[in-house]
Amino acid sequence: VSRGNKIVAINKIGSEQEYEKSEQKCRMCLLNLATSIETLSDFQKEFRTHFGRRILTAELNDLDRREKRALSRLWAISHEFIRDPSRTHSNLTEYAESIQRNNHDRFLCLLRNALADLQREGTEARLVSVNSNWSGRKALWITASVQEARGLERIILSVASAISAAVAACRFDDQEALPLVSEWKYIVVVPQFRKRSLAKVASSIPSTYFLIASNQSELPLIYTFSVPVEKQDWAHLNLTLWTAPVASLTMKWYEASHLLVIQLQMCFNLFTAATQNSVFPEVLRQHEERFTRNLSEAVNSAYTAYEHLRDFLAMRLDSSLSAVTQGIGILERLKEWAKAVFPQEQGVSGTIVLDIERFSEWMKSLGKAAPETPVILAGILECFLPTS
């Protein structure tokens, strides 16, 4: 990439509109380069599959490293040129790379500080890995632990706020964060209770949500739910896990109930929109098979998780639980929750015919039960989880 006077002159020639078009093309160039860096590892893996046996491993490793370095350098130089095309440097490559390294280090430093600040809210959060993967892509891994079970309800939102604060403090321009997105596809948050994970689950958030979109609004509900972590990804983290069965059973019920809320809301929105626009049959027919299948799976999954948890708690109450009175109260609240969430509890395994009126009733009932979910979760953990 040259920084000679000719290129600078060409960039300045023309109308303001032409200059804006040129600037847009430059920014698109940066985006394409960032995408190339992000997908380079996939290309290199494919190359190894087909041609790896024809090249010495040491040479192939060196080639992979040089390719990544070359694209990274090209992005850094291109960004610096676009940012200030009239400025010259005795060693542009070294200067541009130093800017990129500083952005990288500054982001991680500010992120660690923002996570540490959550201690004032009762959340102990820390960055545990910058090299581990999520679904085959490199990710930033964060653990967030609370001492009180009720704190689990907003633990992901608290961490998301800290990440947003760190990004805001970095004051990146429109393109400076692209290398960070290329390096970390996801930011993964592992919720913990008293410094131990209740199950091998985590919430994954695309890094673009924070680094590119610069969102200051509350995190979308879908990103607050935890999903199972792949075995090979969890193995690299060396995290402590609650081994008591009640921990995993409770988390499965909690996450399944949240997924049910999402699927029911999506179906309800479809029914409502189609009805209001007087195209109910046509619109619904296009999506009803997929939506009803997903809703059925969510209902069955939530009900199964509820049954397993209910039966386990009942069994514990029949054994040697010390706080029997408190335990009975929690179990009864769980059963009342189920009556609201599964209006036709006895027929969940069968067929439920839904119309807009039935949907409305179900949504209202679920709305009343939703606030009880984190309360019941906290009660179960405090009462039934071993203290050590």
User: What's the end-to-end separation, in Å?
Assistant: 61 Å
Low-confidence stretches are 1-14
On the 0-100 scale, what is the average pLDDT?
Answer: 81
Main sheet specs:
6 strands, mixed
Number of helices: 13
- Which overall shape is indicated by the principal axes computed on the Cα atoms? globular
Architecture overview:
The chain has 388 residues and is of the alpha+beta class. Helices cover 63% and strands 9% of the residues. Strands 1, 2, 3, 4, 5 and 6 form a six-stranded mixed β-sheet that branches. Helix 2 runs antiparallel to helix 3 and helix 9 (245-276) packs antiparallel against helix 10 (280-317). The longest helix is centred in the last third of the chain and has 38 residues, at 280-317. It starts with a helix and ends with a helix.
Describe the structure in brief:
This protein is an alpha+beta fold and about 400 residues long. The protein has 13 helices and 6 strands. It has helices at about 5-10, 15-50, 55-85, 90-115, 155-170, 180-185, 205-210, 230-235, 245-275, 280-315, 325-340, 355-370, 370-385; strands at about 125-130, 135, 135-145, 185-195, 200-205, 225-230.
How would you describe this structure in keywords?
single chain; 388 residues; alpha+beta; 6 strands; disordered N terminus
What is the secondary structure topology, with strand pairs?
Blueprint: H1 5-12, H2 16-51, H3 57-83, H4 92-117, E1 123-129, E2 133-134, E3 137-146, H5 155-170, H6 178-183, E4 186-193, E5 201-206, H7 207-211, E6 227-228, H8 231-235, H9 245-276, H10 280-317, H11 324-341, H12 356-369, H13 372-384
Parallel strand pairs: 3-4
Antiparallel strand pairs: 1-3, 2-3, 4-5, 5-6
Helix pairs in contact: 2-3, 3-4, 4-5, 9-10, 9-12, 9-13, 10-11, 11-12, 11-13
